[in-house]
């Protein structure tokens, strides 16, 4: 078996190049140039908001974007830094520094790679939607709150990372608003909002940065009262050379300390990249290889830390920009990375003049688009369990930490899911007569009623026999122990699987029944369930002939057992 077949690694780029032509190249070049221009302000803004320099944001977009397109499993996915990572990256840097971020990102890349190798791409898609909406909305609010200082020109230093202390500091200092900075932010915001009304293909963020940066420079030269903080003021003159790759020290203490953060980055990256890929598939009609996409994302996140980069994932907005401008193969994503590289090498000095308030406006719009408030309104019409998952995940993301939010959100969703399955799983009791066709799609003509002998009780488990249902079944059996039948038939036609707790409860039931002289017959056992029963030794406890594949055989056997026991009792009586 080939390695690519064993690990399901089939990058879309290699398949696309087999039938490539000049027409497709022209379309990809145009799309790549447009996406590169759109990605420029976002890469800078996400880098700064994450607590690193704009240089690092661009380096991440260049290297990460190239690797995602080269190795990924989606034809149009554009990779790079995204708003979803701002909160987690900022917190990691605050706690562990840039060195800790590099290690966490590298570990996240390894986790993503292993997810793809072990074919977990489809599993990630089943993470409950309320959790995704909850922490996305929480991230959006957190991003918005981080931009208040720069947008209003409050001039605060050492702003707390926690949400509530941060807003307490803001409210105490709103009297220090700098009007030139606020005006710069508002103009930027208006340009971003109204540019799409002129043309949806014009990148509002880039237009705002170009216009506002030029206007701010002119105002600063001609008017002494006009002064706004720029990227250059905060970060100094930025290098225009690709950083030399550097290593970092890994040890078990560091790994244990950063593993929760790395896991959060990996899960968040997997969710966002596969969500972006799913949206792209819906528009283009293509099909994403989820496992290959995770491997590609893993490779990108393993590589970028060596250049000082931050986490990489698929970006929905940039991917949709790629599609709307004609990009259909990974070549467009590679060209987008090359465009950013050229800007980095030759135009980086101009970035120093961009006002921080302008970037604040860009990120506020990003936060608004991320919030998905219309989706939240829709979910509030869903069952209460979904609403509770959304609210808990949202509050944990905002007030505490994204790592805690994802972990507890997933746990809560699993608990509610198990509760829902347990509530919907019925355990029915029959005696005297049993309709074989009950609960099936067979018509009235196919109904077959079996006569169940007195002394036979039939219990039907309608659903998987896992730990939650096993407890429910055990409680029902205890409540009916007073009836003392001679034979108990456990009908398992609708049991799709049985777990260790189900097997354990079944063993206890068989043992206690046998001590009381009650026979156990299993009916409608599916092949995979029978295999589990045999592996646990239950066939030896009750006899392999007592495990029947159909209820008719089970009832006949039970009736015969009752007749035999009754006859023996009469003889001894």
Protein model, in words:
The chain is mainly alpha-helical and 573 residues long. It has two domains: 3-236 and 250-416, no CATH class; 426-572, 2-Layer Sandwich (Transcription Regulator spoIIAA). The chain contains 26 helices and eight strands. It has helices spanning 3-7, 12-18, 22-49, 54-71, 86-117, 121-124, 129-146, 148-152, 163-173, 179-198, 204-222, 231-235, 252-284, 290-303, 316-324, 330-346, 348-351, 356-371, 373-379, 384-400, 402-424, 467-479, 500-515, 527-536, 538-542, 551-572, and strands spanning 79-80, 313-314, 426-430, 433-435, 449-451, 456-462, 487-491, 519-523. Strands 3-6-7-8 form a four-stranded mixed sheet, sandwiched between helices. A two-stranded antiparallel ribbon has the order 1-2. Strand 7, helix 23 and strand 8 form a beta-alpha-beta unit. It is elongated, with a radius of gyration of 31 Å. The relative contact order is 0.14. The mean pLDDT is 86.
Explain the layout of strands and helices.
Layout (H helix, E strand, L loop, with lengths): L2 H5 L4 H7 L3 H28 L4 H18 L7 E2 L5 H32 L3 H4 L4 H18 L1 H5 L10 H11 L5 H20 L5 H19 L8 H5 L16 H33 L5 H14 L9 E2 L1 H9 L5 H17 L1 H4 L4 H16 L1 H7 L4 H17 L1 H23 L1 E5 L2 E3 L13 E3 L4 E7 L4 H13 L7 E5 L8 H16 L3 E5 L3 H10 L1 H5 L8 H22 L1
Parallel strand pairs: 6-7, 7-8
Antiparallel strand pairs: 1-2, 3-6, 4-5
Helix pairs in contact: 3-4, 3-11, 3-15, 3-16, 3-18, 4-14, 4-16, 5-13, 5-14, 7-18, 7-19, 7-20, 10-11, 10-18, 13-14, 13-15, 13-21, 20-21, 22-23
């Amino acid at each position: 078996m080939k390695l690519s077949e064993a690990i399901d690694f089939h990058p879309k780029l290699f398949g696309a190049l087999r039938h490539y032509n000049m027409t497709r190249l022209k379309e990809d070049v145009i799309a790549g140039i447009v996406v590169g221009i759109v990605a420029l302000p976002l890469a800078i803004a996400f880098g700064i908001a994450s607590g690193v320099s704009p240089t690092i944001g661009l380096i991440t977009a260049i290297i990460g974007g190239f690797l995602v397109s080269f190795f990924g499993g989606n034809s149009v996915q554009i990779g790079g830094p995204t708003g979803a990572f701002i909160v987690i990256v900022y917190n990691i840097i605050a706690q562990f520094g840039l060195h800790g971020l590099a290690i966490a990102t590298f570990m996240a890349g390894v986790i993503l790679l292993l997810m793809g190798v072990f074919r977990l791409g489809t599993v990630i898609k089943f993470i409950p939607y309320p959790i995704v909406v909850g922490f996305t909305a929480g991230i959006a609010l957190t991003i918005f709150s981080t931009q208040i200082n720069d947008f209003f020109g409050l001039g605060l230093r050492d702003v707390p990372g926690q949400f509530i202390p941060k807003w307490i500091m803001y409210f105490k200092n709103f009297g220090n608003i700098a009007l030139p900075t606020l005006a710069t932010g508002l103009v930027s915001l208006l340009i971003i909002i109204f540019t799409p009304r002129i043309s949806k293909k014009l990148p509002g963020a880039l237009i705002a940065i170009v216009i506002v940066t030029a206007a701010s420079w002119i105002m600063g030269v001609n008017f002494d009262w006009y002064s706004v903080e720029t990227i250059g003021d905060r970060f100094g003159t930025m290098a225009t050379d690709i950083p030399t790759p550097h290593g970092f020290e890994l040890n078990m203490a560091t790994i244990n300390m950063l593993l929760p953060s790395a896991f959060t980055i990996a899960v968040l990256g997997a969710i966002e990249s596969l969500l972006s890929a799913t949206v792209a598939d819906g528009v283009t009609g293509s099909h994403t290889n989820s496992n290959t996409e995770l491997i590609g994302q893993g490779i990108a996140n393993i590589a970028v830390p060596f250049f000082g980069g931050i986490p990489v994932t698929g970006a929905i907005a940039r991917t949709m920009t790629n599609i709307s401008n004609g990009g259909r193969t990974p070549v467009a994503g590679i060209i987008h990375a090359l465009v950013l590289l050229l800007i980095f090498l030759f135009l980086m000095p101009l970035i120093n003049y961009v006002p921080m308030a302008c970037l604040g406006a860009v990120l506020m719009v990003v936060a608004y688009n991320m919030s998905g408030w219309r989706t939240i309104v829709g979910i509030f019409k869903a069952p209460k369990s979904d609403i509770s998952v959304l609210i808990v995940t949202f509050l944990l993301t905002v007030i505490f930490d994204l790592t805690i939010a994802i972990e507890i959100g997933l746990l809560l969703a699993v608990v509610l899911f198990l509760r829902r399955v347990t509530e919907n799983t019925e355990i029915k009791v029959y005696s005297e007569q049993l309709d074989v066709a009950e609960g099936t799609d067979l018509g009235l003509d196919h109904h077959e009623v079996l006569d169940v002998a007195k002394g036979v009780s039939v219990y039907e488990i309608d659903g998987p026999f896992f730990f939650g249902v096993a407890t429910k079944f055990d409680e029902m059996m205890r409540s009916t122990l007073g009836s003392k039948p001679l034979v108990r038939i456990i009908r398992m036609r609708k049991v799709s699987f049985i777990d260790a707790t189900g097997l354990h409860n079944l063993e206890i039931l068989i043992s206690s029944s046998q001590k009381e002289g009650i026979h156990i017959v299993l009916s409608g056992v599916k092949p995979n369930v029978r295999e589990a029963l045999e592996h646990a030794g239950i066939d030896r406890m009750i006899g392999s002939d007592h495990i029947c594949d159909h209820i008719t055989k089970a009832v006949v056997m039970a009736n015969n057992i009752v007749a035999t026991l009754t006859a023996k009792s009469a003889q001894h009586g």
